[in-house]
Amino acid sequence: MGTQVLDRDVITRYPNNSDRSQFEDIVNLLTENDAAYAEINIPGKDSIILPKELAELLVEAARRLRQGKAVFLSSSETQLTTQQAADLLGISRPTFVKLLEENEIPFVKVGRHRRVYLKDVETYSAKQHNNFMLAMSDLSANTNPLDTVDNPLIRG
Fold first, then answer.
1. pLDDT tier at 81 (50, 70, 90 boundaries)?
2. Would you say the pTM of this structure is higher than 0.85?
3. How many other CB atoms sit within 10 Å of the CB of residue 23?
4. Helix-turn-helix domain location, by residue (predicted)?
């Protein structure tokens, strides 16, 4: 599991307390009226309209910096090898290949190698997380705390 999925050149920005109100203004301006784009005006140059994806990234970065969180920006190929995808999910490559063979995650063949799309891996990961959260919610809803009082494994 030594393959690195994300590029090594990660850009990190840390929050500056004096800029938090400016981040608040950016978030408010870009999210009011469901604005689908942002326009950048550079003195002496034509204004540029940012694509929706970039505007959304800007909003999320500003929102997190406003909350006092550091922001990391990295990139990844949209198509991954089975090893890269397994690393991303934190599982072994053979286990990941088994998921592919069970049609849990779509894949394409490039020659004799399988490739998966990052979006499909993220979708699978989110689905697994949601299933886990539902199972934990069901478990806690169906558990009587008094049932554990006499359990010798739980007594401290």
1. very high
2. no
3. 19
4. 80-127
